[in-house]
Write a structure and sequence with these properties.
heterodimer, A: 113 residues, mainly beta, six-stranded mixed β-sheet, five-stranded antiparallel β-sheet, B: mainly beta, seven-stranded mixed β-sheet, four-stranded antiparallel β-sheet
Chain lengths: 113, 113
């Protein structure tokens, strides 16, 4: 059974720092991996989607990478801002169309002004 | 605007009083699903639907029912709610199947007294 781990559970950084959030998984037979942002009490907003055949995706200050062989994905945030404070979750889609997404428990990020 | 809409957003009810949380998407997605989110447990899938009239259990289906009579709607039914169903519920949709981005509703916070 696929297991997804996000470490650390919480992270606090000063504004302007570049930072990396980690997502590790146990089964490399994935279809894609998606990174989400969740603000307190709100829904999840999709940030980046990486297909199994891709190595990375970029959107603005965000860059997500995928290394299936090592079972890892990273989300890189450049020049962090207080508005980046949120919980970041990764989710994996299995190779079969009817397997549910498996979510990590998230990393709660605080960017201090 | 592409969106997933859930109602109600907030609900307080009492044990045993049947309730329905509605979910509607305007993106013509085949796949829809329901999740609950609890502190320390993360997001867990309740039910999902691959298409109209096709539904299946997720990881935590006990105490819930769903129906998919038309493509855009996927209501979650609690026939006899209990306090352990107090949670934050999310509806999501995706197309096609595993290749696409998952879109989430804003969430429905349910309290069962």
């Amino acid at each position: 059974k696929q297991e997804v781990t996000q470490i650390p559970a919480a992270l606090s950084v000063p504004e302007g720092e570049n930072l990396v959030l980690n997502c590790s998984f146990t089964d490399s037979a994935i279809y894609n991996l998606q990174w989400f942002r969740q603000d307190p009490g709100k829904g999840l907003t999709s940030l980046l989607l990486i297909q199994s055949s891709q190595r990375e995706q970029t959107s603005g200050r965000l860059n997500a990478s995928l290394d299936k062989s090592s079972g890892r994905s990273t989300l890189y945030i450049a020049a962090s801002q207080p508005g980046d404070s949120a919980t970041y979750l990764c989710a994996l889609a299995g190779y079969s169309g009817n397997t549910p997404l498996v979510f990590g428990k998230g990393t709660r990020l605080s960017v201090i002004a | 605007e592409a969106q997933v809409t859930q109602n109600p957003r907030y609900l307080i009810t009492v044990t045993g009083k049947k309730l329905t949380v509605t979910c509607s998407q305007n993106m013509n997605h085949e796949y829809m699903s329901w999740y609950r989110q609890d502190p320390g447990l993360g997001l867990r899938q309740i039910y999902y639907s691959m298409n109209v009239e096709v539904t299946d259990k997720g990881d935590v289906p006990e105490g819930y029912k769903v129906s998919r009579k038309e493509k855009r709607n996927f209501p979650l039914i609690l026939e006899s709610p209990s306090p352990n169903q107090t949670s934050l519920y999310f509806c999501a949709s995706r197309s096609p199947l595993n290749t696409g981005e998952l879109f989430f509703g804003e969430g429905s916070r349910l309290t069962v007294l």
